[in-house]
Amino acid sequence: MLPAEIELPLLKTLESAGDHIGELKSYIDAINQALLAAFKKGASIDSVITGRAHLVDKLLQSIWEQKCDPDCGAALIAVGGYGRGELHPSSDIDLLFLVEESLQQESEEQISAIVTLLWDIGLNIGHSVRTPEMCATEAENDITVTTTLMESRLLAGSESLYTEMQAATGPDKVWPPDAFFQAKLEEQQRRHKKYDDTAHNLEPNIKGGPGGLRDIQMIQWVARRKFGVTSLNELVERGILTEAEFRSLELGKKHLWRIRFMLHTITEREEDRLLFDLQQKLAAAFEHRDNEANLAVEQFMQKYYRTIARLQRLNEILLQYFEESILNADEKREITVLNRRFHIVNGYIGAVDSQIFSHRPLALLEIFFLITQNPMIRGIRASTIRLIHEHLHLIDRRFRNDPKAKQLFLQIVRQSHGVYRVLRSMNRYGLLAAYIPAFTNIVGRMQYDLFHVYTVDTHTLFLIRNMRRLTVPELSSEFPLASEIMASIDQQETLILAALFHDIAKGRGGDHSELGAVDALHFCRAHNLSEQQVHLISWLVKNHLVMSMTAQRKDIEDPDVIRNFAKLVMTPKHLKHLYLLTLCDMRATNPKRWNGWKDTLLKQLYRHTLRELNNPQSEADDYSELQKKQTQAREELADQDQKAVTQLWMQFSTDYFQHHSVQEIAWHADVILSTPEHEYPQVRIQCEMKPGASEILIVDIDHDNLFAIITSIIDQCALNIVQARCETTDDNKAINSFSVLEEDGSLICDRHREEEIRSRLIDDIKNLTEPPVNSRHVPRQLKHFETPTTIEFSQDKTNMRTLLRLQTADRHGLLSRVGLALSQAEVRLLNVIIATVGAKAEDTFFLVDRNDEPITDPEHLERIKSLLLEHLE
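RESULT FIELD:
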C-alpha cells in the first residue's frame, strides 16, 4: 500500500472535488505526479501499481455514490488487469456495470451519466453493461471474457448481483479447468508464434511477447481456475512452485512492471513495445551508461532479455505441471525406461530420482544426448528442468576437463537429428553457457542496430537451425546448391562448432572475429579434434564475415576481386564450409532482409571462386572470356545485322562486357539496334533476365541528371535498387540497367505493375530536367540512428577507374542525391555496388571523368566530396 503521506492528501483532494470535472481532473493529475515522484524516490513498484488502482477505486466509488441510488439494482465491477488491483499509468480501466434483468430507465441514465463523466475527466475506460445471465453467455462463447471476469472485484453497488455473476461464470458452469487450460495453452502458442516463438526480437513486446507479463498472468489464470488460488505465493504452499521459483517470478514481474511503468510515463499512452527510441530513453531512466564494450541501451536490453528468459522457463515448467495435473490427471502414465538414470513419462524425459545429477554430474549432458537419440521425446519433465537448474553449479572447470564430458558434448553436435532443438534447450536451461563460459556473455545480448534483429545467442541458434535444414532431403529445394554441398561435407560438426563460436566474442571489445577464433581454437584443441579440423573451425570463425562483405560490397565480376578472394579461401574445402556458414548466418541475422538477390550474389561468388581455385585464370584468360561472351551474344542476335552489332560494340568499354551476362549484352544490343533515337527513352523490364532480381533497362541520349532522375523515379515507385550499371557509348547513348526488388524483396511479376513503372519512367524522363522532390516518409526505425557520412576514394589501376566508397544514413532517394552531385561534379558513373546494413548505406561507386579516365586530380576529388556532402545533408 501507499504511505499515508502520499495517500491522505490525495483523498482529501477527492473529497472536496465532488463531481466537478476540473477538480476531478486535478485529482487524476495529482495521482500521476505523486506516484511518479514516489517511483523516482525508490518506492516499491508494487505499491505504485496497486496504489494507483486503489486511488482510482476511491474515485469510482465516490462518483458511484454521487450518481447512483443505493437501490438502483446495479453493481460496479473492476475486471481484467484493473480487477487484479494492478494499474499502470496509461492502462485501460476495465469496468463492468452489472445490472438486473429489468434495468429501469432511471438506473440506465445513472450509468450513462457515470460513463460520460469518466470520459470527460480523461480516464481510459473500457466498459460493458451486462446482466449475470449475459455474462454467463458471453463467457461461454469467449474465453477472454471468462478470464476478465475471473479477476473481477466488486467496487460498489449490489453484492448479491456480483455473487450471482460469479456463480454463473464459475468453473462448474463454464470452461471447466481442463477445457480452460487447453484453450489458454493454444492461445499462448498462437501469441508466441506472432513473435517468431522468441522473446529476443529487435523491438519486443513486454506484455504479449514470450516471457512477458502475459505469460505470468497465464500461470495465474490457470492456477486460479484449477485450484482457486488468488496469488502465486499459494502455489508455493501447495508444492507446485518452489520458493526460489516464486522469488524469481516476483523479481521478474517487478522488473517488467518498472519498465512498463516508465514506458507509459515516457510515451503518455498505453505502450507495450520497446521501440528503438524508447529503449534509449529507458536505458537513461534506469541509469545505464555507455562503456567501451557496450552501449547503455545494450546493457539495459540484455538485462531485459535475461529476465524474460527466466520467466519463459518458469512458464514452461508450470504449464507442463498443469498439463500433467489437469489434462492428464486421469490418464495412465506411459513410462519407457531409457537407462538407470532416465525414463520417458508421457513423452517427456525425466530423471529417475532427484539425486541423479548430484551422484553423476555428467548426466547433465547425458540427458540432452538421449534427446537426440529419441525423436519421440517432446521435452524435459518440469521436475527435471528444476533439477538441472539447481545443479548447474556442478558444471565447473573439473567437469569441463572431464574427457567423458567432452565426448558427450561432441556426440551431441555430431548427431544427424535434433542438434538445433537440443542446443536451443541447453541454452534455455543454462547448460550451454555453463559448459562454454564465453557463451555467457552473449546470452540475451542485443546489438542496437537494424541489421541484427535477434539477440546474439538466439541468432547463433537460428544459424544452426538453418544449417540443419540443409541436411533434410525434403527441404533441398529451398537452397539446392547449399543442400548439395552440405551432403558432401564429411564432418558436419565443423560447421556447428564454427557457428557456436562465430559471434561468441561480441560485446567484449576488439574484433569479435579475431577473439572468437582464439576461443574456438582453444575449445577445439581441448576437445582433441584433429589439427586440420581445429584450424578449419578457427579459420571459419575468423573469416565468417568476409564472403558476405565480398559478395555485397565488391564487384564480383571483376577477375581481380575473385583472384584475391580465392587466395584467402585457399582450397575448395574452405570455400564450401565458408559458403554454408555465410548463407546460414545471413539468413539468421534478419530474415526479412534476406532475398533472392543476396542468394544470387553468394552463389555467383562461390561459383566464380571455385572455378578460379580449380583452374586459376590469367589476364589473357580474362580477355578470352570477353571474346567468348561476344560470340555467344552474337548467336542470340542472329536476326540483327552483324556489322551493326560490331559497330555498336566498338563504342562500348571493356568494362561493359565484363559486368554483363551474355543474355544482357544481347538484350541491350537488340533494344538499341531495333529502336530509332526519336523513340527514346526506351524502358524495358525483365523478370527472368537475372536470378534474384528484376531488371530495368533504360536507353536514352545522355544528359545531365539522367541517373539522378531515373533513380528518384524508381524510388518513388517503391522499388529497392540492389545494383546499378551505367554505360555511355561514344555516340552519347546512355545505357542504364538496374536490378530492383519490390519492398518485400519479391520480383516485379505483375504485368500491370510493369506497365505502371515503365510509363512513369518514360513520362518523367521526357519531362524532367531535375529529379523530383522525394515525398516518401522516412521509416520510423531509421529516425533513431545517427550515421555520419564518410567518403573515401581509391584507384583501381587495373581497370582504370576511381572507386568512391560512401557510408551514410540509409534513406529514400539516396542514389538520386548522389547522382545529382556526380553530375554536377562532371564525372561519369560506371557501376554501383549497393549494400545496406541496418540503418546504414555502404555503397561503392565506380567513376571516370568525362574523358573516360580515372579521377586523380586532388582538387577534382575534393569537389566531388564537397558536392556529395552538400546533397546528403
